[in-house]
Amino acid sequence: MGILNLTPDSFSDGGRFTQEEAISAQIKIMLNSGADLIDVGGESTRPYAEPVSADEELRRVLPAVACIRAMHQSIPISIDTTKAEVAHQALHAGADIINDVSALRFDPAMIRIAVTHEAPVILMHMRKTPKDMQDDPAYDNVIQEITDFLTERIFWATEQGLDRQRLIVDPGLGFGKTTGHNLTILKNLRAFKSLGCPLLVGHSRKAFIGKLLGLKTQDRDLATAMISAYCATQGADILRVHEVEKTRQAVRLHEAILQAP
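The structure corresponding to this sequence follows.
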């Protein structure tokens, strides 16, 4: 999953893709790099980020969704939003999947949009909100607590009429977690396969990589690719990354080594 951030304040590439020419060029790079799907976001969910209005979010994402669909008629597009109206209009414009970091909690109308459109939904674990999620996150058992949260959200979503086969789970690396929590999640990724849903991992350029290796955000793609290769062997079905080509190379090489006699 290639990431297309259309925000001026994203932690990684904020402000890079706010003009039509730059957006189109980035989409072309991801398509040529072999992205299987593209995730479009118009509101930053970095730690301490301020929310934006639905109108502003729509102004950012709708042209990008249209641009992707004009360049590729069938590649799946996910809309990264917690707002039902943004999801509704993006799906009408050509998006296919709802990527909701609140796991359908922030906007009560979101579940109706998902059910009506029969759209797959990514349910992510997050403590609190992006604005305060990194204020002293603490867990007694981070794996069990994330599993319990996602189990409850899966049950709730299916009770509301969403087909379980359309649900994808994301343990939410960096969303209300310390570096230690993130490492524990990665070490125990296979535990989330017990949920019976495809597993997405969003580790790309995250702060814990910088803390461990002393790297600036823009210098974390090699480490991201190495984590991607590891995750692919631990049950991850979708790898959400900024640099698609490096991740594909790392995963293919790791798989080739594992398949050698």
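The chain has a mean pLDDT of 94.
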